Amino acid sequence: MADEQKDKHLEALNQELITLIRHGSLDKKHGGLDRSSYTLLHHLSIHDKVGVKALAEQFGLDTSTISRQTSVLEAKNYVERVPDPQDGRSSYFQLTTLGAQTFAEARDIRLARYGEIFGDWSTEDCGLFSGLLARLNRTLQQK
């Protein structure tokens, strides 16, 4: 009986995650950055200089995909390539001033949107939900 109940919960989780991903994919109009650009800029805002291989590993993508995505950001002057002083064949990406500003604006718009979405949630519920999402993300990262 417990397995049957867990299966029902897993099916409900599946449905809710699908809905969450669908709604989250519509956020380009909320900050002007598509999901991959926002995610890469967010990562670079935290980690300063990051190479293509490290980005590919972090996001579980191949280096050609990351190269295409960073090329788009580079063309928009959101990121710049910085040569690796220890290996002239390698380079890192880092945010430009424009990239940091664009990311900050998009983040602020998103945070304001989340403030509206979670406006009637208690502080405790927001903390619990955030903690459970963090736990889910840690588990997914380990798999």
Walk across the major sheet and give the strand order: 1-2
Strand content: 5-15%
The helix content is: 55-70%
Assembly type of the chains comes to: single chain
Give the low-confidence spans: none
Q: From N to C, what is the helix and strand string?
A: HHHHEEHH
Instruction: Determine the mean pLDDT.
Output: 89
Structural class: mainly alpha
Give the number of DSSP strands: 2
The biggest sheet, with number of strands, parallel, antiparallel or mixed sense and barrel status, is:
2 strands, antiparallel
Describe this structure in words.
- It is globular and about 60 Å long.
- It is 69% helix and 10% strand.
- The longest helix has 23 residues, at 2-24.
- A two-stranded antiparallel sheet has the order 1-2.
- The protein is mainly alpha-helical and 143 residues long.
- The protein contains six helices and two strands.
- The mean pLDDT is 89.
- The chain has helices at residues 2-24, 35-47, 52-59, 63-75, 97-117, 123-142, and strands at residues 79-84, 87-95.
- The two termini are 28 Å apart.
Key attributes of the depicted protein:
about 140 residues, mainly alpha, two-stranded antiparallel ribbon, 2 strands, globular
Topology (SSEs and partners):
Elements: H1 2-24, H2 35-47, H3 52-59, H4 63-75, E1 79-84, E2 87-95, H5 97-117, H6 123-142
In short:
The chain is mostly helical and 143 residues long.
